Inverse folding.
């Protein structure tokens, strides 16, 4: 009901249309529909805030992050979850690693320091694991789906093709069997899992103001999560980009204008990976990747970076190549 009526009144400032709708509903159905209208107004003015949760630092070889970049050099990357606030319930995007030690299976090392970690990061926003109603996944790699078992009361939302891909063996230890088995178990628990068929259905508004679409890169089942904020749409794109500076702002070893550089860890063809990045750059005003600070985008170009909140304070970015 809410979804259908939201389509009728998509513009948050459209008081005139809401008034017309009020008259229509009260004339035809009486006072009971006023409650429905209140939901329409709430949905129409949905403005989520996205909080960056700093879970763990991962030590990794640099060319894993950007193809052929600083081969042989070890660097550190952040690993985020995103907490979406402003709706009826707290929503979490990705759950990080199950433990720092599990990264050893990929030859990587994890460091949890200070107030890092899922529970303490949620607590900074007054949220506990029990408050989270939905756990969404950009994808379910080792560093994105490791703590789903700590949300037994939440519904997990992933693409069906990501579940299939995780069990396919095509990316080996990047999908730990513990994670895959946990998701399989959810298949057989009422309401524990919601599977999306975005390749066939097209973009899916899973909750008011939150739309999932095919990402088209990194893994076969990756999805972008588009979230309406008070300052425009934020595209949470997972790992189609790791390093915003060296893949987007100054793409490493790329001569072409506006051609992004891919990561060193991608499951699809180069053409698809580059197209996925271009798609994400056109899917929202903000780009939120799995391991780097958020960016604000204008006409496909990174113009500012943000810290731990979207919307939030920004630092402007000068274009590396003059725009014609
Ligand atoms: Zn990742």
């Amino acid at each position: 009901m809410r979804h259908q009526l939201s389509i009728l009144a998509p513009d948050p400032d459209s008081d005139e249309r809401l008034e017309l709708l009020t008259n229509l509903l009260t004339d035809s159905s009486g006072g009971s529909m006023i409650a429905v209208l209140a939901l329409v107004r709430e949905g129409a003015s949905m403005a989520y805030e996205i909080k960056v949760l700093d879970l763990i630092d991962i030590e990794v070889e640099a060319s894993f992050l950007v193809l052929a970049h600083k081969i042989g050099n070890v660097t550190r990357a952040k690993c985020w979850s995103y907490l979406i606030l402003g709706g009826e319930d707290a929503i979490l995007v990705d759950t990080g690693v199950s433990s720092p030690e599990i990264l050893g299976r990929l030859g990587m090392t994890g460091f949890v320091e200070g107030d890092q970690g899922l529970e303490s990061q949620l607590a900074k926003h007054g949220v506990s694991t029990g408050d989270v109603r939905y756990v969404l996944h950009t994808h379910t790699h080792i560093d994105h789906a490791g703590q789903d078992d700590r949300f037994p009361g939440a519904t997990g939302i992933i693409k069906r093709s990501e579940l299939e891909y995780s069990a396919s063996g095509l990316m080996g230890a990047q999908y730990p069997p513990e994670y895959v088995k946990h998701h399989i178990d959810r298949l057989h628990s009422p309401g524990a899992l919601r599977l999306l068929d975005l390749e066939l259905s097209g973009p899916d508004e899973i909750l008011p103001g939150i739309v999932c679409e095919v990402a088209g890169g990194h893994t076969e089942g990756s999805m972008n999560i588009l979230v309406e904020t008070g300052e425009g749409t934020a595209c949470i794109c997972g790992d189609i980009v790791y390093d915003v500076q060296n893949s987007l702002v100054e793409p490493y070893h790329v001569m072409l204008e506006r051609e992004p550089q891919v990561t060193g860890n991608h499951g699809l063809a180069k053409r698809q990976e580059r197209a996925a990045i271009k798609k994400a750059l056109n899917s929202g005003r903000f780009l939120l990747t799995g391991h780097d600070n958020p960016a604000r985008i204008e006409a496909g170009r990174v113009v500012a970076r943000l810290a731990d909140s979207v919307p939030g304070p920004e630092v402007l970015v000068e274009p590396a190549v003059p725009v014609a």
